[in-house]
């Protein structure tokens, strides 16, 4: 019994001389002489490679040059410089102050409204892409950079996932980066002054407000405009009208043969204004030539009924 107690005393004394102190709670399972080489090389300091063998989530980020540990202030430094050990179970091995942290040293720089957002709004376990990392309490690692990991997709998967193509971080509306010139339907004339919601109306989809931006029928004008001609001149309004105003007629494209007065002879080269004196929408009289022309024969050839 005395020999047994003596061995315990000698072992404890030896460990006390070798170990500078207890490990933190996070590393408590590495306590003991038999575990020293899991972090240290014999007679050497703690090696970064051994730290990263356990902390594979940080190693994977460093490998792809992402995250705070890949920044110039951290990469290449000894882990123990920031995370010292052997200061007791309750020692705070991660000395992190969110209020003083420079987020620009990470792979996700904060701009616009993100600068005013509380850290906990984004750093939630549900927003972490790695399922194993989600199990770690209080970690700031592993967030997905996609907007939809924090924000709801108001477009309900109809416009892809590149939010930055249209939006910035200042505010969601208006979509200041959107350029209608790059859309299939380019805005010209009076369309440039029309409020977006006039064409992109808000409806209900899956129980939520939904504003439709794709799949609109724009091949002809009738989905937005009433056809005052009741399809008498077909569905291609561009043949006659331009976007600078309904009353402005595309005279080159207008086919007078579709009216009740087809143009023949020299009437084909007469300016529209000669007959349509007020506007092209005015319907001039055309039953008799004298409605437009003076009677050079002074009624000599008029036959009374």
Order of strands, widest sheet: 1-2
* Uncertain regions spanning at least 5 consecutive residues: 4-17
How much is the radius of gyration in Å?
Answer: 40 Å
N-C termini distance: 148 Å
> What is the percent of helical residues?
10-25%
Structural class based on helices, strands and sheet pairing:
mainly alpha
The gross shape turns out to be rod-shaped
> Major β-sheet, in short?
2 strands, antiparallel
Strand content: under 5%
Q: Would you count the extended β strands for me?
A: 4
Overall pLDDT metric: 86
> How many helix segments?
7
- The sequence of SSEs as H and E is HHHHHHEEEEH
Short description:
The protein has 305 residues and is mostly helical. It contains seven helices and four strands.
Report on this model:
- The protein has 305 residues and is mainly alpha-helical.
- Among the domains are: 21-95, no CATH class; 163-211, no CATH class.
- The chain has seven helices and four strands.
- The chain has a two-stranded antiparallel ribbon with strand order 1-2. A two-stranded antiparallel ribbon has the order 3-4.
- The longest helix has 17 residues, at 2-18.
- The protein is rod-shaped.
- Mean pLDDT is 86; it is low at 4-17.
């Amino acid at each position: 019994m005395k020999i047994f107690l003596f061995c315990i005393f000698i072992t404890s004394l030896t460990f006390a001389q070798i170990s500078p102190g207890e490990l933190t709670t996070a590393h408590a399972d590495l306590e003991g002489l038999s575990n020293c080489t899991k972090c240290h090389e014999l007679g050497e300091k703690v090696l970064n490679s051994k730290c990263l063998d356990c902390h594979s989530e940080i190693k994977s980020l460093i490998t792809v040059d992402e995250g705070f540990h890949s920044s110039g202030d951290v990469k290449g430094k000894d882990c123990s410089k920031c995370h010292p050990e052997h200061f007791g179970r309750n020692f705070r091995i991660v000395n992190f102050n969110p209020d003083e942290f420079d987020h620009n040293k990470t792979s996700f720089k904060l701009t616009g409204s993100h600068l005013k957002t509380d850290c906990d709004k984004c750093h939630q376990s549900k927003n972490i892409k790695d399922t194993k990392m989600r199990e770690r309490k209080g970690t700031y690692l592993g967030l997905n950079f996609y907007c939809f990991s924090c924000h709801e997709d108001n477009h309900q998967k109809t416009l892809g996932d590149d939010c930055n193509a249209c939006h910035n971080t200042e505010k969601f509306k208006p979509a200041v980066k959107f350029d209608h010139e790059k859309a299939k339907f380019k805005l010209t004339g009076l369309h440039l002054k029309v409020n977006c919601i006039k064409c992109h109306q808000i409806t209900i989809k899956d129980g939520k407000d939904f504003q439709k931006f794709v799949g609109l029928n724009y091949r002809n004008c009738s989905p937005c405009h009433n056809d005052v001609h009741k399809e008498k001149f077909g569905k291609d309004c561009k043949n006659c009208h331009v976007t600078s105003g309904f009353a402005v007629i595309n005279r080159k494209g207008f086919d007078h043969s579709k009216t009740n007065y087809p143009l023949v002879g020299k009437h084909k080269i007469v300016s529209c204004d000669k007959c349509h004196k007020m506007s092209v929408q005015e319907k001039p009289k055309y039953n008799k030539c004298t409605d437009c022309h003076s009677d050079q024969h002074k009624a000599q050839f008029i036959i009374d009924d």
